[in-house]
Amino acid sequence: MKKLLSIVEQGGYPDFTELYREAGYEVEQTTSIREATRWLKKNVADLIVTDDPYFRDRLSNVETIASIAERHPETRLVVLVEKEEADMLKRLEDQYEFAGTLIFPIDEAALKALL
Fold this sequence. Notes:
By secondary structure, this protein is an alpha/beta fold. Helices cover about 35% and strands about 25% of the residues.
């Protein structure tokens, strides 16, 4: 079965676990980048879906996860982001490959299409 790592740091949006399962994924959910990093040291995810409420001057949580995901070419990364942070994320698109980015509020049909 395909593995999906859901990183929910920000929350405040619907739980998409059932949608992920319907798409054929075994779902692991964490609430922090630290937990996700620990999980990724022992497992390989086919898909990582993460929200990132905190873009910093130097290194964001998305960069941390993207750099880990790069070690496994089969791993795809979807980022959920606030509209105000979308420009910061665009800067990272030159450096990392994302399977998709979705802006809050998340359109469930758009997310389903990325699965």
